[in-house]
Amino acid sequence: MMRMMAALQRTAAGDAFTPEGWRPGDDLLTPPDQTLPAALQAGAPSDWFYKLKKEKK
Amino acid sequence: MHDELHPDTQRPPRIGDIAPNFQARSTHGKLSLDQFKGRWLIFFSHPADFTPVCTSEFVALARAASDFESMDCALLGLSVDSLYAHVAWIQAMQEKFKILIPFPIVEDPSMVIGHAYGMIDDHSADSSAMRASYFIDPNGVIRAITWYPSGVASVR
Asked: How many domains does one find in chain A?
């Protein structure tokens, strides 16, 4: 329940999702940019739908 | 009419109910839910293929597949996406994470299964099935249900 509450609070602003196994302080998932130009600009083809980012300290 | 005092007569299944049977196309061919009888089964929906949280969950489930196997527990995924999307997504995950999703993923383009399980209903904002998991015993009885929002991965 604490992990769920922490995940809900962390994702409430909409700037990040919490991946499987997430604990507070762990890396987060970036919400994908939903336009084709942005998807094409991502590094590897799969980067547009799966990209981790560091939690800001 | 749906209201608090007169709820829909067909309510979503709850703990203790028999899991509604269905036949559908999956990435492993046509299947029906009752063919899993005799084993434990975790049947889970995800909002959409190619979304980050679902991807993290599916990769984790694939990595834990042998653990579930040793518990004699089958895994079965579902989303409203078509088989074509499922296949492309599995290919993308195999390329990126070097792991193959070993369990079948059912397609539900008409959302008939999602409706039967209450993953989506007439009041839903869109067609994304919620992140629901049904833990079904060898007799086909639902023993636990978990629901998670789209932005938070469920606990493995």
From this structure: 1
